[in-house]
């Protein structure tokens, strides 16, 4: 959501968040400020930021390709103002796989950094490093020859920062993978999350004391990332081994594509169901969502056939699908309910409410829903 697709590499769409131009603007202002040729400085800032993000894409690709190697699935890579995120489904389960996958990114950044540093030493006199650092700290005149040392240093920084042993940094995953060899996965995660939150507090405090807005932003990013990872693992631990067939609704209200929309509106008013599978001869041909009903009523009135306003493309799950996987897919798709289908035959409906109910039940009384592995 809120992002544009740039390119697809190895089947992985690389997207850029709509706030990304703001970073370019920030870079232009930051580098242009105090320069004799403001335009030149601004251009340097934009070019260096674009190149830096190219390096970030390589970092995320390294994680992603290794994840695919281990049987994971990468949905997309998104470039955010503060870096990149590779969104994955089915992460590798074995600790050593997670360890290698987590290390792949920082190692890539480190290799790029060292490579560019060597190239700088090879191409320019050594004094370019001191000149470059001086120009950064006192916004002295910039030169295009600073491009290489700048990228070298930021890539090395990227490698180092990401190796901090705290969630959501790659180092947090490394820490968890190591901890997970001696304790249960959930405990290992909880510990790595705590470390991440503590680090975020320290960064935030440092940011406040030095009045560094960027540092405060990074602290917030780290804190929310760590917390999110904690929730995700709680959810995964709770839902692990549960199947769709244990929690879905077997007898939801269904509608026919030729029914008038008013019929669905009546069903919505009568019961608690707000999303309807549209079925024809035992097969689901569409989903009628609450928004679809409301918009249809407003634009066409209650007489229009449901076929005209239903969603013909929708997510489908099977009765033996893993509940955590399904939960992830549903929350990514934004759907409120998905039809459960086996061999093309419609079985029932799985709603977000069903998932929440299952989560509450297993956390309160695990024996209620037996797990299978
Ligand atoms: Zn990474």
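-> sequence recovered:
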């Amino acid at each position: 959501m809120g992002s544009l697709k740039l390119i697809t590499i190895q089947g992985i769409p690389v997207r850029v968040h709509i706030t990304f131009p703001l970073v370019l603007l920030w870079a232009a202002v930051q580098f242009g400020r105090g320069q004799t040729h403001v335009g030149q400085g601004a251009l340097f800032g934009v070019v260096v930021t674009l190149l830096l993000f190219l390096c970030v894409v390589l970092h995320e690709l390294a994680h992603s390709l290794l994840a695919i190697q281990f049987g994971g699935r990468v949905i997309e890579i998104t470039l955010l103002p503060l870096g990149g995120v590779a969104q994955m489904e089915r992460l590798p389960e074995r600790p050593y796989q997670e360890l290698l996958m987590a290390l792949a990114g920082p190692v890539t950044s480190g290799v790029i950094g060292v490579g560019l540093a060597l190239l700088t030493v090879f191409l320019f006199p050594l004094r370019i490093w001191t000149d470059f650092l001086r120009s950064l700290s006192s916004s002295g005149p910039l030169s295009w020859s600073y491009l290489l040392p700048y990228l070298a240093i930021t890539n090395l920084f990227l490698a180092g920062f990401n190796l901090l042993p705290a969630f959501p940094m790659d180092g947090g995953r490394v820490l968890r993978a190591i901890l997970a060899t001696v304790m249960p996965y959930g405990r290992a995660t909880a510990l790595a999350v705590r470390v991440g939150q503590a680090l975020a507090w320290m960064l935030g405090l440092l940011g406040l004391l030095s009045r560094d807005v960027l540092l405060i932003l990074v602290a917030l990013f780290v804190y929310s990332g760590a917390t999110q990872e904690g929730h995700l693992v709680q959810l995964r631990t709770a839902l692990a081994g549960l199947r769709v067939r244990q929690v879905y609704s077997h007898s939801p209200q269904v509608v026919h594509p030729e029914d008038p929309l008013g019929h669905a509106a009546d069903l919505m008013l009568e019961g608690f169901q707000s999303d309807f599978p549209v079925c024809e001869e035992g097969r689901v041909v569409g989903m009628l969502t609450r928004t679809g009903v409301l918009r249809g009523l407003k634009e066409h009135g209650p007489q229009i056939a449901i076929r005209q306003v239903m969603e013909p493309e929708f997510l489908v799950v099977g009765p033996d699908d893993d509940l955590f996987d399904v939960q992830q897919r549903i929350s990514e798709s934004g759907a409120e309910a998905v039809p459960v289908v086996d061999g093309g035959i419609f079985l029932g409906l799985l709603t977000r409410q069903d998932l929440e109910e299952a989560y509450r039940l297993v956390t309160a009384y695990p024996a209620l829903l037996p797990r299978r592995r």
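The chain has 13 helices and eight strands.
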